[in-house]
Amino acid sequence: MADILHRIGCVAPLDDVYQAIVTPERIAEWWTTDTVGKSEVGGRLAFRFGEAGGFDMEIVELDPAGHVRWRVADGPAEWIGTEIDWRLERRGEWTIVLFKHEGWREQVEFMHHCSTKWATFLLSLKYLVEQDRGRPWPDELKVSDWT
Amino acid sequence: MADILHRIGCVAPLDDVYQAIVTPERIAEWWTTDTVGKSEVGGRLAFRFGEAGGFDMEIVELDPAGHVRWRVADGPAEWIGTEIDWRLERRGEWTIVLFKHEGWREQVEFMHHCSTKWATFLLSLKYLVEQDRGRPWPDELKVSDWT
After folding, report:
1. What are A's interface residues with B at a Cβ cutoff of 8 A?
2. Would you tell me how many other CB atoms lie within 10 Å of the CB of residue B71?
3. What ipTM was estimated for this complex?
4. Tens digits of per-residue pLDDT, B93-130?
């Protein structure tokens, strides 16, 4: 098993960052504009990226103190069954986001790509909560031929 | 053991990307302006980031066909003994960079941070070879309280 890890810090209240990863309308402002669903444990969120497809996530954990966890229920074969874990912590003026996309079966080239894309989307989340300047799909930062 | 993976694509000749990860003067334009050393197998490169310290890398592999490998000889305890592997491949108009920083003993918070920072430095490398717009330390993109 292999995991994608990231860490960003946002100069913003913890609850602002929490809402940005929990509320479909807010996720749509940093990840993909095509985000729908209901944020409740056992509920599902659907993220779409046009012709490239997308992901359905089951919500496993929702703790406003700073923990969110999704399980990938549908999407590319490499993603199904993996889990995405978000931990938020206050440190001084910062809200620290510890991100993990865990349970990849193999270190395939697509995992390399997703790791870099997650970094750019996490920075999009940071700019959203700090400056109201998120960059969700379809106008997100491109990193390669795989966009 | 745990690894940091990334993938970027550059619209640039493979040799331009190769030179940018092999030549100290070029590395200084996307990673840290304080890069010195000699690029030869068995040689060392020293990367410094002011008061934050830095890394000494021993060069393990240098293949202009598209493979470079460094071993961390000195730096933060978590980095010593880890290896950084670069593979370059041509695909149409693209040079694809498959990056791996491998051999982390534990998934510590610092590993999360380094993964996100590597993504931003790889994008700096991409902008350098495509548009001559690298962003090396000390003016690199900041991602958190750990800069």
Report:
1. 2-9, 91-92, 94, 96, 98-100, 107, 109, 111-113, 115-116, 119-120, 122-123, 126, 141, 143-146
2. 17
3. 0.97
4. 999 999 999 999 999 999 999 999 999 999 999 999 99
Chain A partners within 8 Å of B115 (Cβ): 4-7, 115, 119
What are the structure tokens assigned to A132, written together? 């109201």
pTM of the model: 0.97
A46: tokens are: 């659907």
pLDDT digits (tens, 9 = 90+) for B43-92: 999 999 999 999 999 999 999 999 999 999 999 999 999 999 999 999 99
B132: three-class secondary structure by DSSP: coil
The Cα B70–Cα B82 span in angstroms is 9
- The structural domains of chain A, with segments of one domain joined by +, span 2-131
Give first-to-last CA distance, chain A, whole Å. Answer: 25
User: What is the mean pLDDT of the segment spanning B16-22?
Assistant: 98
CB–CB of B10/B95 below 8 Å?
A: yes
Measured between alpha carbons, how far is A67 from A54 in angstroms, rounded to an integer?
23
User: Is residue A64 reached through a cis peptide bond, with omega within 30 degrees of 0 on the bond before it?
Assistant: no
* CA dihedral for B67, B71, B74, B76, sign (positive or negative): positive
CATH homologous superfamily, domain A2-131: START domain (3.30.530.20)
